[in-house]
Every structure is written in structure tokens, then in C-alpha cells.
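W.,

You were right to be curious about this one. When I first looked at the sequence I had no strong expectations either way, so I just let the prediction run and decided to look at it fresh. Below is the sequence, 421 residues in total, followed by the output.
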Amino acid sequence: MPTSATTIGALSAIYNTDSPQASLLPPWEYPRAAYVHIPFCAHRCWYCDFAVVVARKDLVHAYLLALQKELARLGSQQPVRSVFIGGGTPTLLDPPDLERLLDLVRHWFPPDGDAEWSIEANPGDLTTEKICLLAEKGINRVSVGVQSFQPHLLRFLERDHDPALVMEGVYRLVRVIPNVSVDLIFGVPSQSLGQWEQDLHQACALGVQHVSTYGLTYEKGTRLWKSMRAGRVVPLDEGLERDMYALAMDLLQRYGFEQYEISNFARAGYRCRHNEVYWANDAYFGVGLGAARYVHGRRQVNTRSLHTYIERLEAGLDPTQTTEELTPIERARETAMLQLRRCQGILRADFRLRTGFDLDRLCRRAIVRMTTRGLVTDTGQAVALTREGRFIADYVCGVFWNSSALGDAPSSIADVVRTDP
């Protein structure tokens, strides 16, 4: 529900940022990571469901002022181990605005040790001036939205770059940024297995340290979804999409990339630390339009209306749109579902430490059924997806979340809570 008017220090009360004990709490209770959302885009791709604003660079100044006011609600600087500046297209900002953004974020979220500082980038924005600015301001990881190297697929996806522009921009990046990642999309209508293989080879040839591969999704309400529902777009055959995912797993491994999560592959030492926060179900700060934050089991999401966001912060009000308070058992089930996305899976001892629940008592029947079907493996120390399980990961993760559907629902909290010796 929308929150009522609050004073400028309200967010610090939510986060307990003024408490000297806050930094001593474990990372699943108190954030060591922060997400900052920059919503501006030159064009909304028709498959995009993110909180973006198109062709309104005239509002950048007002937005950065509002963002500054939201950050001030933290009450004090919050040292973090990772920052992820996403969008939208953060690199769409002109250099002076981009510099102001980076200075603002670094002030409120100073790096704690060798922190990871990531920003999302569009290939067309990677000018020498912007790349040098990113490096100068401490950005050490850039995630580039490549999506494909096939011109006809880029046109279908409504991307505004061509393969030559991608290669030129990434070559500039890898010279000065230690960790460069590229995003690729498979399962695009008319895409062939051979074209997908070419995309994978070309991505690896760029000398990047990280590759993310995502199957094209038809998010409800997007123009792509509407076209699919109207029969104007026919999704790729599921069998071919499965073959594409299998090819990515095999080929990227041959190039020296380790698969560490369902969609993510990294060279040794180059995993995305920030995204690992999400998959572990750790706490995180979140600021900006439509941004989510997760602290002490409370999830809050800001309004997705740019004008509402700016107006509320100008008036000293909270931009939060929704708040959800998870019960301990909901937090435990969510932790199981998210950690199952990792290739290392759910570590039993860590799960008990984080949640206070015993994994086997909470998800006993789900583990047995999924193991019997060959979709998860159980080593005793960890429960993880098998290769076969990764092909239908959403289903398996859903089973672990909604284990009551398998008759797993405990009769009482006492049935699943860890018993101390």
C-alpha cells in the first residue's frame, strides 16, 4: 500500500541506519549492496517490462535532484560491497549528468574494500569520453546489452545498434574496465541454432569476462506479448530453444566460462557479486524509479510513475508504492527458491543459519520428488539443480516455493524450525 507522508529521516528508521549495531548484522538482514535505477531510454524495446521513460532527457536534472533527496533519506552514508546502476539506460546520460550521478551514488554508498561497481550500458553510448569517465569514477564492471550480433534479430528486438558498433564499443571497454559482461538473448522468432552459435562465438571473441544468456520472454502487457496473443508473432519452437540453452552451456564451458547460475557464466574470479546477493536472498538497498529494496524481511517497491516519484520527493514524501512483510517461513521458502538458481544450489548448513529452518523438514517431499525425477541432486551438504533441471528451472524453483502443493506444508512452525543442541 502507498505509505503516508513521512519526515526526511523516515527511511533511516526503516533501515535502522542510525543504529551502530546495524553494520554488525549479517548480510541477509542488513544490506551490503545497493541498486540504483536510472529510467531514461532513447526507445522502449517491445519486449521490455522495466520502469523506463522514453525520450525525456529534459527530466534528467529533476530526476537526479529527486534521487539525491531519496538518498538523503538514508540518514547517513552506507558502505557497501557492491553497487549496480541499472535501467533504463544509465549511459544515455550526457557526461556532466553521468558524472553527477556517479559522484552522488559514491557519496551515499562508499565502497567497502574492493567493492564491485557495475553499470548497465548500451553499445551506442560507449564513446571514449564516457568510458574514460566511468573508469575515472571507479566503475569496475560494465554490463553491455548486446542481445545479438545478427542484424535481422536486432531489428526484431528493436535494438538501435549494429554488430560493428558493439564490437567497437566493447573493444574500447575491455582496455580500461577490468570486468566487462555482455547480455545475449536466444529463442527469438526466426533465430536458428547456427545463428545462436555464431553469437556465442562472437561474444567470447571480444575478450569479455562474463556472459549472460536469457531466453526471450513474453512479459504480459508488453507490445511483444500483445503481438504474440494476436498471432502476429509466433514464439520459437520449445525444442529448438532448449537446444540453444544446451549449446550455450557446452560452448561457453569450452571457452573457459563457468556456469554459476541458470543464466550466467563467468571466467574465474569474475562472477557478478551484486546478482549473487539476489540469488542468496541477502538484503539490499534500492533507490530510484520503480526500485525495490529488501531489508529485515520487508520488501518495498517505489512508484513507477516518474512524475509521482519526482513530486513526492520534492514534497519531502516517501516514494514507496508497495510494502510486503514476509513471515519467517515465507522468507525461508523464498531463500530456497532463489538459492536453487545457483549452480552450487542450497547449502544446508548455510540455509539453517540464515533462516532458522531445516531444509529437509521444510521441503522434504519436494527434494525427494525432484531427486527421483532427476531434476535435482542431493549430496547431503547441498541440493542443486541437475543439468536436466536447469531446462525447467522455473518449474522446479516453484515447487520448492510452493511445497505445500506437494503435501509438504508443516503442521506448525515447530515442525521445521531448527532445534539448537
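Here's what jumped out at me. Residues 174 and 207 are 7 Å apart (CA to CA). And, maybe more interesting for your project: The radius of gyration is 22 Å.

Coffee later to discuss?

I.
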